[in-house]
Amino acid sequence: MTAFFALATSLLWGLADFGGGMLTRRTPALTVVVVSQTIAAAVLGAVVVATSGWSEAGPRLWFAFAAGLVGPVAMIAFYKALALGPMGVVSPLATLSVAVPVGVGLFLGERPGLLQVAGIAVAVTGVMLAGGPRLGGASVQRRTVLLTLVAAGGFGTVFALIAEASTTVTGLFLALFVQRVTNVAAGGIALYASVRRGAEAFPEGGFPWASLPAFAFVGLADVAANGTYSVAAQHGPVTVAAVLASLYPVVTALAARGFLRERLLAIQTAGAGLALIGTLLLATG
Q1: 14 is in which domain, residue-wise?
Q2: CA-based Rg of the chain, rounded to a whole angstrom?
Q3: At what angle do helices 169-196 and 29-51 cross, to 10 degrees?
């Protein structure tokens, strides 16, 4: 069950990141975050009311609140990086996010078996290689790498926090709702401050209504990924769930290859293959 939900997480996050990166090429990253997360919060609010999720309120919601503060920083940095650099290079670097939840799992006493350790090593190496050897060069590229590293640290922290935010399904809906409302509040304040400094909130021509379905997809896929990751972490070792969920950069890179025709180098193809092998080792270990 852990492997299934963690792999579902990687698929959902990978597609959400691809969509967010595409939207950020036309719309400011802050606006993408605020609009997509507002839609997700509205849907989750309806779900919480329908399931009486308010009855699950408790101290664990502070983890969701903290995740909601960290999440927008990570998403904004990552969407900007995706807009600046090739997705096939930027996205695999985000696999460094796995270091945070894996470190937490080891600190809490989890000890993966030998086969799982091998799977972790192979999978992480594969995702890193999927980026290809194109990281040096111009200042824009260095800025892109820095933004990606900031995003990776943020995503890893959200991984660790959301896994602690609930223990039941209805509690998970409430935790995700709190996280999204916090995302919107933090992102909205940042967007307001950015506009006050003279930045544009929308592209030329006003709000991109034609892109509303894409905003909805990004927000809902992101929240669904948080949910499946929480389930995966609760039903198995966090170290395994985190590594399998961190394969989302491969999904983003493949989506860029399919939709944007970004060409994959031989080393990137080999890296994707290693990531798959590592996944199989983890799933069977």
Answers
A1: 2-284
A2: 18
A3: 150
